[in-house]
Amino acid sequence: MSEPVKRKGFKTNKMMKDIMARHFYDLDAAAKSGSPKIAWCTSVGPAELLRGMGFLVYFPENHGAMLGATRMASDYIPVANAEGYSPDICSYLTSDVGAFLKGETPLTRAYQIESVPRPDVLVYNTNQCRDVKDWFQWYGRRFDVPCEGVVTHREVGDVEDHHVQSVAEQIRELIPTLESVSGEKFDMGRFKEAVRLSKECTDLWKAVLQTASAKPSPLTFFDATIVMGPAVVARGTQEAVDYYKELLAELNERIEEGIGAVEEEQHRVYWEGMPIWGKLKNLSELFLRLKTCVVASTYCNSWIFDAFDADHPFESMARAYIELFIVRDEAFKEKYIKECQDTFKFDGIVFHDAKTCPNNSNNRYGMPQRLQSKLHIPTITINGDLNDLRMYSEEQTVTNIEAFIEQLDESK
Amino acid sequence: MRTDLFGGIDIGASNTKTVLLDAQKNILAFDVRRSGHDFTSTSHEAWRSVVNQAGLGAETMAAIVSTGYGRRNVEFARENKTEISCHAKGCYHYFPRAITIVDIGGQDNKIIKLDDRGARLSFKMNRKCAAGTGAFLEEMAYRLDLPLEELNDYARRATDEITLGSYCTVFSATEVLEKIRAGCPVADIVKGLFRSVVKRVLEMDTLTEHVVLTGGVAAHNSILQEIFEEEIGHEALLPPYPQLTGALGAALFAMDLG
Question: B122: nearest CA in chain A?
Answer without folding.
Answer: A378
